[in-house]
Design a protein that fits this description.
Largest sheet: none
Oligomer: single chain
Number of strands: 0
Order of helices and strands: H
Structural class: mainly alpha
Distance between the termini: 148 Å
Strand content: under 5%
Shape: rod-shaped
Helix content: over 70%
């Protein structure tokens, strides 16, 4: 009888240990799932932040390039206008000279 009681006690301890192990496993799964969701959210936030920073760098580079092109165009327009005026002056002088002759 004593042997049977020890077997039953051991069986009862085993059931408690198994129940505790199941509870710990469930808690570990919940913690792992929570950590995975947090990690995914942090990764998405980091990726969005990096994308925004890259967009800002690209926009800054495009704005600088547009400013250089605008400045270059203005300088070329001014040079062309100055050259056209000087040619116009020479043409008018030549026409006036022809008309006076």
């Amino acid at each position: 009888m004593e042997k049977l009681e020890r077997v039953l006690e051991a069986e009862e301890r085993s059931r408690h240990l198994l129940a505790d192990a199941r509870e710990r496993a469930a808690a570990i799964r919940i913690d792992a799932s929570t950590l995975a969701r947090l990690t995914a959210a942090e990764s998405a936030q980091h990726a969005a932040s990096e994308a925004a920073a890259e967009r800002e760098r690209m926009l800054a580079a495009a704005e600088a390039s547009a400013a250089r092109i605008t400045t270059d165009s203005a300088e070329r327009r001014e040079a062309s206008t100055t050259e056209a005026r000087s040619r116009m002056d020479a043409a008018v002088t030549a026409v006036v000279g022809i008309l006076r002759s």
